[in-house]
Amino acid sequence: MNKLIKNAVITLIVIGLGITSLLYHDMYKQEQEKAIKIEREVVRLQKVVEANERNTPKELIETSNKFIETLFGPNQNNLKTTKKALLSLTTGEAHRRLTQTNKDVHTEDTSDLEGFESKAVINESVYNRIGSQDGKVIVTFEHWLSKDGRTDKTVNEATVTIHYVDGEWKVSEYKIEPLL
To answer: How far apart, in whole angstroms, are the C-alpha atoms of residue 159 and residue 103?
Structure first.
C-alpha cells in the first residue's frame, strides 16, 4: 500500500511539473510576443521623434524648392536624369502623377523640346507644419521659358505637401496654379 501511495505521489508530482512547465513556457512565449510588439512600437516612435525634430522650415522649404526647380528646370541634355531626380524626391500621389503614362504623349521623342530652355526662379516659400511627419510649403515662383531668343515668364504658386519617409523628406502631393 505504501508503494502504491508513493507511486501516486510521484505521478502527481511529475504531472504537476509537466503542467507547470507548459504554463511557464506559454507565459514565456506571450512575454516574447509582447516584447516584440513593444520593440516595434519603440522603433516607430523613434521615427516619429526623428521626423518631429527634423520638421523645420529650412529642411521642408529646401525640399520643396528643389522639387520645383527640378520640375521646371529640366536638364535638356538628359531628361531621364531629370525624371530620376524628380522621382527620388517624391512619394505617394506625387510619385504616381509623375510615373503615370499618357498614351497620347510620346515621352521618348524629345525632338519637339529642342531649343527650349526652362527654369524656375523661387520668389517666396512659406512653411506650414501639418504634423510631426508632414508639412506644407507654398512656393511662389517665376517660370521662365525661352526659345530662339524669345522669353516668356509666368508667375505660379505651388502648394507642396511633404512627408517624412525613411529618413528623408519627400513630396507626397503638389498642386500648381498660375497667378494672374
So the answer is: 27
pLDDT tops 70 at residue 43: yes
- C-alpha 111/C-alpha 91 separation (Å) is 29
Residue 102: predicted pLDDT: 54
Phi and psi dihedrals of 40, rounded to 5? Answer: -65, -40
Distance from first CA to last CA of the chain, Å, rounded? 107
Q: Are 118 and 74 in contact (CB under 8 A)?
A: yes
> 140 vs 22, 151, 159, CA distance in Å?
67, 19, 9
Q: Model's pTM, two decimal places?
A: 0.72
Encoded amino acid at 95, one letter:
H
DSSP H or E run through 71: helix 57-72
Query: 124 with 157: CB under 8 angstroms?
Result: no
